[in-house]
Write a structure and sequence with these properties.
This protein is an alpha/beta fold. The chain has two domains: 3-29 and 364-442, Arc Repressor Mutant, subunit A (Orthogonal Bundle), CATH 1.10.10; 35-315, TIM Barrel. It is 41% helix and 19% strand. It is built from 19 helices and 18 strands. The strands form four sheets. It has a nine-stranded mixed beta sheet with strand order 10-11-9-8-7-6-5-2-12, with helices on both faces. Helix 4 (84-101) crosses helix 14 (341-349) and helix 10 runs parallel beside helix 12 (272-288). The longest helix has 18 residues, at 84-101. The chain is globular and about 60 Å long. It starts with a helix and ends in a 24-residue tail after the last helix.
Length: 466
């Protein structure tokens, strides 16, 4: 890439880097640069993938539960209103899907290091359904010793019976989408539980002392002033869960909050500069309390919180996906399970994996994975990238940009290691986007796919919100 080609990726110099480094945040989608597989090849490709005993590194599993008690205004993951009858039938289908694949060579090829039950709202299921689902996972998948099993949930309807059912079935990590403790802020987003109920719920989870307890906080919500945000942080620290996620509000097109903002009903919408300042306030606050930063958006207080699933996903680990709306990756092929409940049900009942789409990685995918994983943990070894792009001058291609970012306050250069500052971690998606553009231009991917040789050539939720 020419010097002129680097300029669009330069950050502003002389400004407050966390607030003003760039004019906009870049979106970096997990399926970027993966080529769609023709629909007519998907079923045969899936059969071959399942029959392949070879495994490529760490393995994860994701189970999607596409039900919610109500649609929170900011959420882009909502699909289906919960009804007891639909949830029971759905649980039966997911268990059947898991059990049907349990003996496949590809499933047995590698221990599963982490399982994530996301949604939607898994805690919308009944205690019996949660117990059956976790038990089926433990019975049917080759879980590694100490496998992290996360249940995502909300405060409303996640009663003691359900919590105990999850723990007794074998879940060892519970992630709760608090978003804010402030009652007024919560109610504006469709959250029914107030501040005191939210605090009491998290404290009760913590006091059970049987699983890692993680909470999500959002900054930039309507009515969430800087003072409210600082109170949210203080309450979270006082409750002392094992981990906390800090996510900036993302106005997702199609969500009720996005429509409200477009209609001028969100007059106090934060600017990017505001979000940057709130991220820095959160990062500094947690660092001052002795929390360790595990990733750009996640902090741990105790050794029990490992955040295995989310870290491995950013590394490009293979992931077995189950349930309507789930997404997985195996043998260089990413895939999406049908998000429509009826389509999903018809497929499972017919004995088929109801895959809606599949994509295949090119030869540069390991390079992209290494970049994403390094930036996610705030330290990228540029020297190690060279082995993933033979013949390309990786260090030379990146050097001018890295020096510019250093002068702008986004990174610190430590030999071959690029260390992100707090500002760099806030703008991480812009950094990943730039690395992608520069490295892929300098080491153009050939047409041949990254799939295994005998397979056809050529898919959290973050997911950033729960």
């Amino acid at each position: 890439m020419t010097a002129e080609g680097l300029v669009p990726h330069y950050a502003r110099v002389g400004a407050d880097p966390v607030r003003d480094a760039f004019a906009a945040r870049r979106a970096v989608m997990p399926w970027r640069s993966r080529r769609p597989l023709p629909a007519g090849e998907v079923e045969a490709t899936w059969a071959r993938l399942l029959a392949d005993r070879r495994a490529a590194g760490p393995r994860l599993a994701y189970v999607h539960v596409p039900f919610c008690a109500n649609h929170c205004l900011f959420c882009g993951f909502y699909r289906n209103a919960y009804t007891p009858q639909a949830a029971t039938a759905y649980t039966d289908l997911v268990i059947a899907e898991i059990e049907r694949e349990a003996d496949a060579p590809a499933v047995a090829a590698q221990p599963v290091e982490a399982v994530y039950l996301g949604g939607g709202t898994p805690s919308a299921l009944s205690a019996a359904e949660l117990s059956r689902l976790v038990a089926a996972i433990r019975r049917s998948l080759p879980l590694a010793p100490g496998c992290e099993i996360t249940i995502e949930g909300r405060i409303i309807h996640f009663d003691a019976e359900k919590v105990d059912a999850c723990l007794e079935a074998g879940a060892n990590r519970i992630s709760i989408g608090v978003q804010s403790f402030d009652t007024a802020v919560r109610r504006r987003q469709g959250r029914r539980a107030g501040k005191e109920e939210a605090i009491a719920f998290i404290e009760a989870l913590r006091d059970r002392d049987r699983a890692a307890v993680v909470i999500d906080l959002l900054f930039g919500l309507p009515g969430q002033t800087e003072a409210v945000w600082r109170e949210d942080l203080a309450i979270a620290a006082d409750i002392a869960p094992d981990g906390v996620d800090l996510y900036g509000l993302n106005l997702i097109p199609g969500t009720p909050l996005h429509r409200a903002a477009a209609a001028g009903k969100f007059p106090d919408a934060p600017t990017l500069a505001d979000l940057g300042g709130m991220y820095r306030a959160g990062s500094d606050f947690l660092a001052g309390r002795g929390w360790r930063q595990i990733s750009n958006s996640h902090w741990g207080r105790t050794p029990r919180e490992r955040n295995v699933y989310n870290l491995r996903i950013k590394e490009g680990a293979e992931c077995l996906a189950y349930g309507s709306g789930g997404g997985g990756l195996i043998g260089g092929h990413s895939y999406a399970v049908a998000p429509d409940l009826q389509t999903y049900a018809d497929g499972v009942r017919a004995g088929r994996k109801p895959i809606e789409g599949m994509r295949v990685s090119d030869t540069l995918q390991p390079l992209r994975n290494a970049v994403t994983a390094g930036i996610e943990v705030g330290a990228l070894d540029v020297g190690a990238l060279a082995a993933l792009a033979p013949g390309a001058d990786v260090a030379g291609a990146l050097a001018p940009l890295l020096r510019q970012w250093q002068s702008a306050g986004l990174v610190a250069l430590d030999g071959d290691v690029v260390r992100l500052t707090t500002a760099g971690r806030f703008w991480y998606s812009n950094l990943v986007f730039a690395f992608d553009a520069i490295l892929c231009a300098g080491a153009a991917a050939p047409d041949a796919p990254r799939a295994r040789p005998d397979l056809p050539s050529d898919p959290r939720k973050t997911r950033e919100l729960s």
